[in-house]
């Protein structure tokens, strides 16, 4: 048995108190933006039957082939720690008969996910995502609304140098026909392609668009594009999504080579990158429409669209501008009975209160209150029975004779949250 110092498992990390204010600020922005638009919070279990992801995400994807944490329970059932949120949310929609609710059903989540990937900055084996899904409506406004909301959240928290890449994959049939055409095109130019691309022509021809070598790039400049082969209905949907993003002033670039690593996407796909992140991990979030997913999971045909964004990456990209929120409305400087009763009463009134617990002098207590970014400080004089209240933002000082006065003033200065 090893007796060394224990550490968190490789690729996982603790969220320490020092990071809590930024995470809380981000969660509050996400909640306000999404709930303001009618998205309701959903929480699904940390593990699911493995079948959900094999069927929902697709057996040919990297996630299912290489990245899932799969284990057997005592009843020999195969279970998997969720690697993504869309399949579980769709499973919950179908399982709980949410098709009976007014459509679309709009949901959001803030949860951790698990993928056995090689750890790098911004890439972990357990990571957190905020995500939103709208299930049960197929019109272009839903696509544009979701992209607009993701853009709004990232802009508001200060993720710098945002770039929205937008594409459309059409239907599964369009994609299959296009794939054949692309493979044929690559075969006719095989001698100019890199060895790596040549070997993967049949396996993953779309990857050729990402190649760096000059020969392949020249060939790809003349390659057929999926966007040019969309059928009339899909092309019209794509144009309508773009028109709505234009109307909402959401900047985007059309990327005809955008391929997302999951099998379930149809029509609109998008990815948001930030120039504030290293190129290899530049994706902050992404998503798309998945009109075939419900049927893949054994349900009736149901359209849906959603996105997920990585919390760790948002926080890395937003770092300097994401202001921590005040989480202390009132600091009670004093440890006597009056001070203790004031703290208890103020907490009952709904204030976030911290009390002096380490015997600091009035000066030391004021310093501690400043460190906590307390909005107000109450200096309690137990003998005189008075309480001096300082507003740390305006510097205003007032004297109160009872707890009720202090609480009324602190409630007025309180930060919304
Ligand atoms: P995906 O569903 O793979 O497009 O992931 C959506 C977002 O989640 C990405 O844009 C990243 O911000 C984040 N993400 C995905 N995988 C990881 C990971 N292994 N570690 C940290 N963040 C991740």
UniProtKB/TrEMBL annotation:
Name listed for the protein in its UniProt record: Histidine--tRNA ligase
Gene3D superfamilies assigned: Anticodon-binding domain, Bira Bifunctional Protein, Domain 2
Record's keyword terms, sorted: Aminoacyl-tRNA synthetase, ATP-binding, Cytoplasm, Ligase, Nucleotide-binding, Protein biosynthesis
Recorded family membership: Belongs to the class-II aminoacyl-tRNA synthetase family.
PROSITE patterns from the UniProt entry: AA_TRNA_LIGASE_II
EC category name: ligase
Entry GO MF terms: histidine-tRNA ligase activity
Transmembrane region(s): none
The reaction(s) this protein catalyses: tRNA(His) + L-histidine + ATP = L-histidyl-tRNA(His) + AMP + diphosphate + H(+)
Entry's localization field: Cytoplasm
Superkingdom as given in the UniProt entry: Bacteria
Enzyme Commission code: 6.1.1.21
InterPro entries: aa-tRNA-synth_II, aa-tRNA-synth_II/BPL/LPL, Anticodon-bd_dom_sf, His-tRNA-ligase, HisRS-like_core, HisRS/HisZ
Quaternary structure note: Homodimer.
A Pfam family annotated for this UniProt entry: tRNA-synt_His
CDD domains reported in the protein's UniProt record: HisRS-like_core
All residue ranges annotated as the Aminoacyl-transfer RNA synthetases class-II family profile domain in the record: 1-317
């Amino acid at each position: 048995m090893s007796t060394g110092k224990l550490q968190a498992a490789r690729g996982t990390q603790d969220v320490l108190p020092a990071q809590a204010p930024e995470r809380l600020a981000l969660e509050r922005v996400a909640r306000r933006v999404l709930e303001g638009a009618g998205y309701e919070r959903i929480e699904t279990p940390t593990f699911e039957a493995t079948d959900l992801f094999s069927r929902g995400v697709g057996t040919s994807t990297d996630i299912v082939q290489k990245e899932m944490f799969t284990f057997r329970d005592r009843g020999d059932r195969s279970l998997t720690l969720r690697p993504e949120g869309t399949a579980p949310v769709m499973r919950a929609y179908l399982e709980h008969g949410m098709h009976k609710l007014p459509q679309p059903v709009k949901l959001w989540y803030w949860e951790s996910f698990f993928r056995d990937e090689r750890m790098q900055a911004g890439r972990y084996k357990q990571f957190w995502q905020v995500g939103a899904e709208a299930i049960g409506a197929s019109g272009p406004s839903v696509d544009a609304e979701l992209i607009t909301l993701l853009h709004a959240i990232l802009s508001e928290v200060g993720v710098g140098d945002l770039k929205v890449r937008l594409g459309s994959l059409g239907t599964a049939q369009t994609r299959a026909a296009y794939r054949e055409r692309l493979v044929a095109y690559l075969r006719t130019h095989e001698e100019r392609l890199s060895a790596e691309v040549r070997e993967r022509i049949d396996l993953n021809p779309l990857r050729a668009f990402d190649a760096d070598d000059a020969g392949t790039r020249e060939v790809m400049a003349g390659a057929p594009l999926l966007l040019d082969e969309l059928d009339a209905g899909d092309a019209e949907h794509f144009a309508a999504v773009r028109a709505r993003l234009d109307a909402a002033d959401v900047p985007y670039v059309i990327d005809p080579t955008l391929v997302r690593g999951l099998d379930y996407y149809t029509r609109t796909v998008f990815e948001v990158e930030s120039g504030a992140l290293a190129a290899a991990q530049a994706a902050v979030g992404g998503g798309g429409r998945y009109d075939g997913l419900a049927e893949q999971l054994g349900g009736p045909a149901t359209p849906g669209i959603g996105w997920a964004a990585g919390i760790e990456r948002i926080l890395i990209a937003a770092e300097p501008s994401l202001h921590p929120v005040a989480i202390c409305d009132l600091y009670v400087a004093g440890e006597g009975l009056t001070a203790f009763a004031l703290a208890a009463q103020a907490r009952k009134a709904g204030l976030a209160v911290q009390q002096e617990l380490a015997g600091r002098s009035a000066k030391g207590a004021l310093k501690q209150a400043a460190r906590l970014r307390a909005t107000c400080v109450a200096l309690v004089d137990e003998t005189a029975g008075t309480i001096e209240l300082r507003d740390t933002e305006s510097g205003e000082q007032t004297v109160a004779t009872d707890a009720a006065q202090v609480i009324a003033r602190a409630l007025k200065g309180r930060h919304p949250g």
